[in-house]
Design a protein that fits this description.
alpha/beta, Four Helix Bundle (Hemerythrin (Met), subunit A), Rossmann fold, 434 Repressor (Amino-terminal Domain), 8-stranded mixed sheet
Length: about 475
């Protein structure tokens, strides 16, 4: 998400860098480029006009032309205006004093509404709530089966009635069932259509009237761009939305809908779906999103997600191991899995300030299959070898390579990089959080964030396989057969 927009903004602000003094014409020229970048990102025209006008006025009012670092001041102004464009947002769900809190989920077919209901139920569980999902999508084949399957995965009950086709009655009965079972939250999964029509709007409005939901969320597909904004306008006219949930956020490279919805519909984005797994629903924070758009990363979200996966006791134990230089490959792989939290290595690295831009500038494409190869190598080691890779000699490397289906030089490369990373972690153990974050780009550049130098393809492509004598003998035997 936002890769193209990040690159364009980077190019725009580079024009101001090092100039010392700039003119009013320079600012207007830069803003023309910003306007073009936003339009190419599929941001609504009215939003683009208002945004560029506001930034220009602020830039001239802040007297950017008199400062010695105009690029830094311009970035700050654009950052602040992006936050204003997408916010303010209270991402929390307002739980009612007398449960259950009723949440109605609306949206078009194909937007990922049913899966998002399950993700929201997972979010509620993490907040200590007991949710119930109601299968009121009676139009789409197997919609009830899908919700029940997701409910089983989460351990969340699903209220379904297969004997009639009255979604209003199903929802009303679902709310009654939740009250009897003393559950905290009811999530109503309503039917969608391929496009907006009167039948759809009438049905959703009737459900809202019968259940009086405390929150109405519209689920939108981020990949539909301006169509998502138009859909939000139509739904809001009939339902009075409380917020928007953007799905497939990780699949859209432009991001225009994210920047347009709040301004056009006047309703906040509450959550964003950033992956297919049920825990990949994130609260929406305009300040963090502005940082991502401008290539500043999103360390806060990364740390929050890591804290959800790692207990304070585990973190303290790891800290002690790091300080003593005793971190094992098992520790390293385990923590990497928890840090990634279901996202790709590329997405995780982009959340570190400066790393996303560095990857694009160096034309580095992360090969996720290398992570699996790295894990295979580690899993082929003995516990002693994982704890102390220094003991791995030539014969051990050959055994590990055979067990993991890799080459001996790959085993050597992993061990070497891990030992370097462990030394750096030991040096970082006594540093402050800010000092550690400053070192993060250097660690990523050295190939240590992923543990293997072969994770990045492009200018840092994986070396060709060089067979040893034993491998050559095996090849000759195979050919002779």
């Amino acid at each position: 998400m936002f890769d193209a927009l990040q690159d364009r903004f980077s190019d725009v602000f580079r024009q101001l860098r090092g100039r010392g003094r700039i003119s009013e014409e320079n600012i207007r020229e830069v803003m023309r480029d910003v306007r073009t970048a936003l339009l190419e990102a599929d941001v609504h025209l009215d939003v683009v006009k208002d945004f560029t006008k506001s930034v220009t006025e602020k830039a001239l009012g802040e007297e950017v032309i008199k400062t010695l670092k105009p690029d830094e001041l311009m970035i700050k102004i654009v950052h602040d205006e992006l936050i204003k464009l997408m916010g303010p947002v209270d991402s929390r769900i307002p739980w009612v004093a007398n449960p259950p809190t009723i949440i109605l989920m609306a949206g078009l077919q194909g937007s990922g509404k049913t899966t998002t209901c399950a993700k929201l139920a997972k979010y509620c569980l993490a907040k200590g709530k007991k949710p119930l999902m109601v299968a009121a999508d009676l139009k789409r084949p197997a919609a009830i089966d899908q919700l029940e399957t997701l409910g089983e995965q989460l351990g969340v009950p699903v209220h379904a009635e297969r004997d009639h086709q009255n979604p209003v009655k199903v929802c009303r009965n679902g709310v009654t069932a939740a009250k009897k079972q003393l559950l905290d939250v009811v999530i109503l999964d309503t039917a969608g259509r391929l496009s907006i029509d009167e039948e759809l709007m009438k049905e959703v409005a009737q459900i809202a009237g019968a259940t009086t939901p405390h929150q109405i969320y519209l689920v939108l597909d981020a990949m539909t761009g301006q169509d998502a904004v138009n859909t939000a306008k139509h739904f809001n006219e009939r339902l009075e939305l409380d917020g928007v949930i953007m799905t497939k956020f990780d699949s859209d490279t432009r991001g225009g809908a994210i920047l347009s919805v709040k301004n056009i519909v006047k309703k906040p984005i509450k959550f964003i779906g950033v992956g297919e797994k049920l825990d990949r629903l994130e609260e929406f924070h305009p300040d963090r999103m502005a940082g991502r758009i401008l290539g500043m990363g999103d360390v806060v979200s990364l740390v929050e997600q890591a804290q959800q996966q790692v207990t304070a006791e585990e973190a303290a134990t790891l800290e002690k191991k790091m300080a003593k230089g005793q971190l094992s490959l098992d520790d390293f792989i385990g923590q990497m899995d928890k840090m990634m939290g279901g996202r790709s290595m590329k997405d995780m690295l982009k959340m570190i300030p400066g790393v996303g831009k560095m990857m694009r500038d160096a034309d580095m494409n992360i090969d996720e299959s290398e992570i699996r190869r790295m894990k295979a190598i580690v899993h082929s080691m003995t516990p002693k070898e994982k704890a102390d890779p220094k003991m791995i000699d030539a014969s051990r490397r050959r055994r590990i390579a055979r067990g993991s289906g890799t080459a001996t030089d790959e085993v050597s490369g992993l061990c070497k990089q891990f030992l370097q990373a462990r030394d750096m972690m030991k040096a970082m153990a006594g540093m402050s959080v800010m000092d550690r974050m400053k070192m993060a780009p250097q660690m990523a550049q050295a190939g240590m964030m992923g543990g293997m130098p072969k994770l990045a393809k492009g200018k840092t492509s994986r070396p060709k396989f060089k067979p040893n004598k034993r491998d050559k003998r095996k090849q000759r035997k195979r050919k002779s057969r």
